[in-house]
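Page 42, continued from yesterday. The earlier attempt failed because a stray header line got pasted into the input along with the sequence. Redoing it now with the clean sequence only.
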Amino acid sequence: MVSNAAVVALGLSLGLSVQWLVVRIANRPQLLAQPNERSSHKDPTPTMGGIMIAVVMIGYLLQTDDESAQLFAVALAIVAGVGLWDDLKDVPSWLRLVVHIGTSAFAISTYAVSGEALAPGLLFIAVIGLAWFVNLYNFMDGIDGIAASQCLVFCVGVQIVAGPVPGATGSMLWLLSGVTLAFLAFNWPPARIFMGDIGSGFLGLVIGTVAIHLAVVAVVPLVASLILLAAFWFDATYTLCVRIVTRQEFTQAHRSHLYQRLAVARGHLWTTIAYLIYAFVWLVPLAWLSATVPALEMLTLIVAIAPLALMCWRVRAGWPAG
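This time it went through. Structure tokens are written below.
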């Protein structure tokens, strides 16, 4: 536990140091995130804060002796680079999608499967699922503190389920926890800086790849990870399906996700804290139960998303406002 605490402290200290510098640089007119159709903020706010997370984590992976970790760092650097480009100047959606699919395939084949051979069908599903998760992490990064706090939910949650995650992957998750805490010091409501696409895309690829990796090496079942991440993937998928079925322009920016509707009604701070309580009181115990009693996997998954489904229905997530 001392070594784990030391890794968290290292990530926290490194993150705070780099984030302070990023805030100073990003607080310029051309680097401010302006309010738009998707955002929930009212005032221009510095963005690109996620560059700190990317720099620290990529640096950590590159200095290891593990070739798969180094190759994973390459995939992460590409996603982060495209995200930074998108923060500075809009990237065509088709190009962003191609990059996300390509880096997802690369990350899975070089890191997630750990030398294990996946059947072509499973590999295809894994790549598409991971690319979707990278994109939805960006969709869900719309209010102060939520994307970073959900990263913490996953990092801490899988450590509890695995009791804890062993080896280099476990150390990476502890470091990511510390770095994310450092970012939250600046992003906690009311946020002084946003993570931007560079941060949301990066975290989506890290978390999704690690979830697949932990399932392949039989440390944390995939269903347990899905339970931990339910607040994001269920909201994003439910909202998208509603928008498609109701024949809306589902590719356009909007503010009809469950978390956005709650933020409008209750505020950013209330919503972020509510999601954290829901995660650690409801999702983490259910994830642990699903891993401990595999026969209950599907039941625990249904029970986990039931409150989300009810709330999405009540606030009419995905439907036009009014």
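Notes: The mean pLDDT is 90.
Reminder to self: strip header lines before submitting.
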